[in-house]
Amino acid sequence: MKAESSSGQVGLHQMLGGLAPLFEAVSAATLPPLLPPDEAASWGCEQPSLAEHVRRVQGSDSPQLKAKAKTSRKVAAKPTAASGRVLYSKGALCTRFRQKDASAERLAEAAELLRSGGHFEETLSYTTALRNCEHGHHWEWALSLLGEMTGRSVEQDVVTYNVAIAACGRGQQWERSLCLLDGMPAAEVEPDFETYQALSLACSRNGEWEKALAFLAQAQQLGVANSESWHIGMMACAGAGAWEATLEMLECAGTSESPKDVSRDLMCYGVALYACMEAGRWPQCLDLLERMRLEEVQPDSIALACAAQACRDGRNQAAANEILEEMRHRKMDSNVAEVLNEATLSVDFPEVRSPVPLGALRPMAQKEVQLFKWIRQRATPGDVQSVIKVIEEFAEERSWLKIQGEQKKELLEATLRAEDRIVEFGCYVGYSSMVMAQRLRELGGRGSVTTCEVDAANAYIARGVLQFAGVEGEVQVRVGCACDWVATGQLGTIDFLLLDHRGTIYHEDLHAAEPSLSETAIVFADNVLYPGAPLFVNYIDVQGYAIEIHELKEFKRPDLDDWVVICRPPPPEKRKEMPESTPPELRRLSAEVDAISWRSQEQKVDWVSFQNRLKPVFYAWKDERGL
Ligand SMILES: C[S@@+](CC[C@H](N)C(=O)[O-])C[C@H]1O[C@@H](n2cnc3c(N)ncnc32)[C@H](O)[C@@H]1O
After folding, report:
1. Which residues form the Rhodanese domain (predicted)?
2. Closest CA relative to residue 451, chosen from 439, 464, 436
């Protein structure tokens, strides 16, 4: 495969050029039958073409589907709706496909209940089930459901195919991923950049780095490759021990041979260092670090840990010590094994787009990074209840978290209604989003959750947590200021607005969101008394909201009282402009709340004394209104 350039090095264009015919050869190669040989033979054809493979799997009358339909009918014949059956939500049924050890009967039952519940009339439900199949390593089910879509004339789109390809890749079935690509024209679906990325990843997961590069080359020819595709290609080489090819790709990064948005950045260098470390090439690691400095790419903890590990393995302890010293000097975690373990964890979750190494997040969100690791070690993937419980345990055993646990959680669950379109301001690590997603499942699996988070590190961790819990399809995380998201108009109609970001601006953000509130909207405001939302209390009062105050305790702080305020806006025609003035004493109190909140991020503050000053004002207001 290698073609020598005049300089003696392998040029990537040559390498990719050399891979193009390989790709053709791969497409045309004899592939293993999709079904066990005896079943395939019963079709009367031992070796169907690729397209034929796909058509057969997709045909509603395939033996595979018939067999499943039989099982499904058996299951459907069990006591159902009218005769006291258990009701499962769409989310809960789709999540079953995520359980690696789920029996065929349980999965068949889930598919049948999804069908009979009318959920399998839409592309999105199938795609959600397929995505769960990917996580649960149920590639056969992914293919079967994809085929069923054709049989039931449910439109397949490029996302459906991309997810099915990913499911085959995760199930070590890269050949079947190719079958799916081959079947896309028949389904009138155009591959996009994610298709090629999923194909590259499928090949990469099976150690087929040359084929991964072939797909990268094809995506480049079609103009749909980007930096992410390039990184996947590099990782495919690095993971398969092809360190020379990885270095070659590093050379080509940022030249005309790579997609336009690729540069020799930290990611490319990091993968190259990893490849050299794995191959025991410590001198190359040191060269790479040197080059990074020359090119002003600051090595992060993972890059340095790779180089240190390579030097240790190569018994160059002096060089390893020098690197460790730099890590300590830059206040990085100098536990090389731990840093590398984190890097591996993020590689295990490649479906989180543009993975940021957890180590890079640590300076911004140390506790939250620890929490994410704690979750991955202790909770069950795809089991949202277990993730919620493990977060609560972390708050109990390790470090307090600003989440809506205990009484607040119960109140939240009791207030939500089936089909609520929920918008939350203040996602943090996704705890309350998961509580709400889970509650919507229990209420029938309709409705939606969109959550805004201003802190990018928190939002990144939240996405990872939600993905781990298997609710990423049910919760949209929007990174940025809540009021900016409101201004985009993209949050849609809101039936349930959860205010849990910054009490001193609740009134402003609520006012901005008012035009989006539905007629029956509920506003659920946490932390009204602790740390305090004085201007919000005044706002809902003068604007004519119907107000309910719930007095309860802050999560895991029995010494601190708090209020959750549940209020309903007046009808749209009675909603008013922002009040021009607010009582000065409330403005002063609000400024004090801000000041102590900021201070609490740096040092210990006496919240109980502060509350003793705040409470009389709030209770006087409450009593005056007879609330
Ligand atoms: C109390 S925590 C939210 C807890 C979360 N609702 C839960 O119970 O799991 C508040 C979060 O709001 C975020 N935040 C603060 N100001 C914000 C704003 N203007 N827009 C969006 N998020 C904001 C903070 O970064 C923090 O993560």
Report:
1. 391-477
2. 436
Look up tokens 């990469």; give the residue. Answer: 204
Helix, strand or coil, per DSSP, at residue 478: strand
The overall average pLDDT reported for the chain is: 83
Q: Which residue has the higher pLDDT, 72 or 169?
A: 169
Structure tokens at 33: 């039958």
> 160, 219, 204: which is closest to 184 by C-alpha?
160
What is the average per-residue pLDDT within 430-454?
94
Cβ atoms 130, 146 nearer than 8 A: yes
- Distance, CA of 621 to CA of 389 (rounded, Å): 37
List the residue whose alpha carbon is closest to atom 15 of ligand 1. Answer: 501
Nearest Cα residue to atom 11 of ligand 1: 426
Does any ligand 1 atom lie closer than 6 A to the CB of residue 455? yes
Long-range contacts of 260-268 (CB under 8 A, 24+ apart): 261/226, 261/227, 262/226, 262/227, 262/230, 263/227, 264/295, 264/297, 265/297, 266/297, 266/298, 266/299, 266/300, 266/303, 267/227, 267/231, 268/230, 268/231, 268/234
Residue 497: strand, helix, or coil: strand
Question: If you measure from the C-alpha of residue 554 to the centroid of ligand 1, how many angstroms do you get, rounded to a whole number?
Answer: 16
| Token pair belonging to 317 | 């302890």
Q: What is the pLDDT of residues 302-315, one digit of tens each?
A: 899 999 999 999 99
State how far Cα 371 lies from the chain centre: 16
pLDDT digits (tens, 9 = 90+) for 237-277: 988 889 999 999 999 999 999 999 999 999 899 999 999 99
Count other C-beta atoms under 10 Å from residue 445's C-beta: 22
CA 287/CA 198 separation, integer angstroms: 32
Q: Residue 564: phi, psi to the nearest 5? A: -105, 125
315, two tokens: 């018994």
Instruction: Verify whether ligand 1 is closer than 6 Å to residue 95 (CB atom).
Output: no
Cα–Cα distance for residue pair 394/322, rounded to 1 Å? 36
Q: How many angstroms separate the alpha carbon of residue 544 from the centre of ligand 1?
A: 26
Query: DSSP readout, 334-374?
Result: --HHHHHHHHHHHHH-TTSSSPPPHHHHTTT-HHHHHHHHH
Residue 130 CA to residue 101 CA, distance in Å, equals 16
How far lies 391's CA from each of 346, 368, 465, 614, in Å? 20, 10, 10, 30
User: CA-CA-CA-CA torsion for 232, 235, 241, 247, nearest 10 degrees?
Assistant: 100
**Alpha carbon of 171 to ligand 1 centroid (Å):** 37
Cα angle 165, 25, 170 (rounded to 5 degrees) comes to: 20
Instruction: Name the β-bridge partners of 453.
Output: 479
Q: Could you give the 3-state DSSP secondary structure of residue 143? A: helix
Closest residue by CA, ligand 1 atom 25: 455
